Amino acid sequence: MYYNLGAVFVGAGEAVFTSKLERYGGRDAYHVVGDGRTFRTYDWIFKVRDRYESYIDTATLLPIRFIRNVSEGGHKIYNNVGFNREAGTATSTNGTFKVPDCIQDVISAIYYARNIDFSKYKPGDKIPFAMFLDDEVYNIYIRYIGKEQVDTRYGKFRAIKFKPLLIKGTIFEGGEQMSVWVSDDGNKIPLRVDSPISVGSIKVDMVEYSNLRHSLSSLIKKR
């Protein structure tokens, strides 16, 4: 992750996503963990120590459990959410709430987006879904922008570009401010994210990957 400091981007932190196949609640599940942190040299500006976990049903790609443990600029949140599909509820650290059938959490929404067949959509189309965050249901969407080449620190790729509707928080502004590029191949791995934040803007580039299911055929030229 790079922070825009005037005319240059400086290294501000890193995010690491891991995914493992496990058994959870008697079902096969992807256990996905996202760890994000600022580098210590950047902590004095805005310190971030975030950990998100999601157990995602392999059959439906819907979350079974979601854990959010974050510290952003001194603001801390912990929430542990279990989803009950039969009852249509989400039980969090703070109570039980009614949710629609195809509810996503923050992490499962990323993997949901990676499994969208964008060939069915035209540039400008909205792809709606519901997400549970901070004990509320948000009806949001992803806007498909189109296909283009993106030049990242890893290399040049053929990519799919979209803009998610963001929920305003401690770091990100709300609205369609974020742009995301994923590889235009069977993996759809995130390649670049550009977004304004509460102070300035950030750029996120993929720098390493492992254990892809498909070949990285979208790579045009590696740096």
TrEMBL record:
One Pfam family cited in the UniProt record for this chain: DUF3108
Upper taxonomic lineage: Bacteria, Pseudomonadati, Bacteroidota, Chitinophagia, Chitinophagales
InterPro entries in alphabetical order: DUF3108
Name assigned to this protein: DUF3108 domain-containing protein
